[in-house]
Amino acid sequence: MDAKRIIAFVAVIVIVLAAAIATTPGLVGDIRLGLDLRGGFEILYKAEPIEEGAELTQEALKEAALSLANRADALGIAEPQVETEGRDRIRVSLAGVENEAEVREIMKKPAELTFRSADGCENGEFCKIELHGSDFVENSASILFDDLRRPVVSIEVKDKKKFEEISRRLLHRQLAIYMDDELISAPVVQGVFTDGKATITGQETLQEAERLKDIINLGSLPLKLTELYTQKVGPSLGRESLEKTLTGGLIGCALILLFMVFYYRLPGMVAVVSLIFYSWMLLVLFKWMDVTMTLPGIAAFVLGIGMAVDANVITAERIKEEIRSGKTILSSLKAGSRTSLRTIMDANLTTIIAALMMFLIGRGSVRGFAVILIFSILTSVVTNVFFSRMLLSLCVRGIGRVSPRWFGVKPGEIMDIRESGKRAVQSPFDFVGKSRWMFGASGLVIIVGLVIALVLGMNYGVDFSAGARVDATLDRAVTEDAIRENLASLGLPEAVITVGGEDGRSVSLRFKEHLTHEAEMKLTEYLGTDNLEVNTVDPTIARELRNRAVIAVLLACLGIVLYVALRFEWRFSISGVTALFMTSLFVVAAFAILRVEVNVTFIVAVLTIVGYAINDTIVIFDRIRENLRFSKIKQPQDVVDLVNRSVWQTLGRSVNTLLTTLLPAIGILIIGSASLRPFSLAIVIGLIAGALGSLLVAAPLWCAFRKRTAGRTAAVEPAGRNAN
Q1: Are 464 and 546 in contact (CB under 8 A)?
Q2: Residue 698 to residues 57, 491, 583, 702, Cα–Cα distance (Å)
């Protein structure tokens, strides 16, 4: 026994657990919550010039966004989030807003540039407006440099006489520049300007001069803001969603930890410590990056724990195989860690590809989900690969003599090392032969689902069909007829009404038309509760979201195809993407048959499945490629035996990783927020379909391709990507 290694092993665990216990409450408390968790509203504006024929520039868009942020600050709204999107969009997220109607009215007013003097004002305030933004020649503001190479801003007004009169009256006095009610600069008038042109000095840096130039150009081009998408979440609903989702996810994660310890013994205990370290590291990253946590983000965090176990399971299964082959514990640890690393990296990179497509194509909370998923994977590689192996190595080397039972291997399962290389383990199940049943069953579901989708259409949510959706929990029981009568009396459009929950207090309203802000306020007042969520989507946004969803899925599949083709060879690539395509179609067909609502979170789930389902396939492909090195392929049956054996060898990993990922997903589905039900249901269906597709579609399909060349190739094949 090596006492130093044992002490180091215990010390590392104590330090990790102590740091996690001591700092986690503070880290969790410091994470900024999104409006779907805190309550508030989000608006996507379309910006366009008020003056007909004027051009919308990126500088104008950025300054308009800055103006909106300043307005939110002036209204006392904590941590407003304002960002530009594309060429003409601004997304505003405001959490914890109480006077929503007033805020929305103020926010959508065009940004207004004014030049003000103190004439007739009390206390030296600049209250008299001398010039408006529309008084300036469009885009006339520019940067010049004086004799000392200091930046100055050149301006030009339309009415020269008016400018001359102002400059003569305010000579040697200040003429302040305001954007809305924010003081930007207060230069002193140094001369009388007769040609309508002047320069503004006093900017210390080029950046200050650039901003002033952009503001003046924006002032001559005020923007009109039109609401294209709105989401409103009541504060009580946000708290309820947070509590339910966390409860469901934590129950699932607790079951994962128990399973790992029970099934994998010592590697399972190390995995538990690694998962705690992994979760703590993610919280540190979130705080450092100032991440805004949304409901989908929490789902990504919880699912990430299930996915992170994958690396531990792959390594533990390979170590068990090496022990069963007759090697010593230490040799098995080295060999298992080495052979599993490549598989883990390949599997994680494919999920990152899908997450990158989410980030590039998605917007708002979809991007947040993608960011959290990417960082979850990267953190998992550090903690659940390298950190886990370090701990396991310290423990095994420190103790010295370790029983195989500590790794979940019974002595009777261990072969003689001299015989293990001579007889390959054969599969007791014909996976290749049974694949036709998988093709038939999944094909039938897909055909039925597609027929229903063509005849009845998919049950699109407002994200994809436009209109409005309102979900509320009332403090009184209501009926559909009563709601319908009240909607008519309020002058609101017809809606599809669903009443459910305990005593008929849960109400869901679906409008085909885009609700105006005034209509939203009428409806909110009638419902009389803040425990509600309102989503309105303009048809333009609905079309964009549908198109982006299709492009994201196609690009994710294409990226995975290219990666698998580079890492393996073309037959693996075609087989893998076929299985992925069938899995995606199966999930879509299942939603069509069950008539579950298809929204943006459904597409996020499909992309997550596309990235994760290929993991099982890559693990199997990697084992097939490894076994090819030591197999003599002389006839088609040899290929069938090889594939069946490879699938059997990886079956334990496939089942266990499916189980550990399903547990948190099922927890969120059963206990979590209702708004995440379509997402979690798609994840559950997709994970099961993806696992079966890897076993009974991808591997048998590769077998079918490979059997055609079985009699025309060399006896022993290389492991590289060009193997035939």
Answers
A1: yes
A2: 49, 56, 11, 6
